[in-house]
Amino acid sequence: MLQQTQVKTVVPYWNLWMKELPTIQAAASASSDKLHKLWEGLGYYTRVRNLQKAAQGIVEKNGGIFPRNYDNVLDLPGIGRYTAGAICSIAFNQPTPILDGNVIRVLTRIYGIAENPKEKRTNVRLWELAEELVAGSERGKDSALRCPDASARRPYPKDSCSHLNQSLMELGALVCMPRNPQCAICPVKKHCVAFKENRIEELPNLGKREAATSRRFISYAIEQEGRFLIRQRPAGVVNAHLWEFPNVEINGGGFCPEEILKSEFGFAGNNISHLTTVRHSITRYRITLDAFHVKLGRRSPSSSSNKLGVWKSPAQMRGLAFASAYKKVLAKLPDART
Fold first, then answer.
1. Which of 36, 135, 149, 301 is 20 to 30 A (C-alpha) from 240?
2. Domains of the chain: which residue ranges?
3. What is the pTM of this model?
């Protein structure tokens, strides 16, 4: 849950998860609908599917006991070098390095590293620095790897791996922030090259940001006899396995909701009203979603709906995991807010 998500956001999800799925075995055997519902709103849903694959592998190969060996942790689905290092150092106090956005910012500023951390050579150097710090080993011959202040070049106690890595992350999150860093209260400012040389705002050098792309969608909450037409997103796409209302991407500024409803989904009707406009972001995309409520009569043909999705009541929909934008649409339906 903590991959790409802040602690304050994760806490309520974690508490509910541990109530519903308190063991590795429970996570391994849970239904897809339950997993996605518990994860609803956290985003990056591949994480929860990888979590279940990892749980299943641990049950099958390790008797349900989480591995303690770094390489075995790294082999689990969804676990990369950073996550494996965080688990082994924080949970098991092993000297394994971590390198996330916060730690990168701390290290590039302290050591005055001007190169882009995304470049391979620079990234390797940062990993080496992180490894040296957590291991508490003597610094290498390369002066670029040495701590700026010789008095700080001493091994850390063997029991400090967990505290050190957590301190690096907390330093980046609470003090050495991207904007308006709190240098006045920083406990390592006397060792910080960026502080001494007034280069705090320059580092880390992440290069130019990719320009945001605007996209626009139109969606329909199609109601017939108290039920709504919804569909599940297929595997292999963003928000895979989550539910949504029928929608289509549109180009240009003007559009006719009635015409799109007919041409894209095969429904004809004049009883259409604007429900809500949702604006949200996914990676570099800035998305605007216009949602409309469509009320069909009893005799309206629904044969095409078998290809479009399934009909569900508001109560049934509340038990399903919706993509965040469509959860906001669901909340605007009168019957769904009770």
1. 301
2. 7-66, 101-202, 213-336
3. 0.81
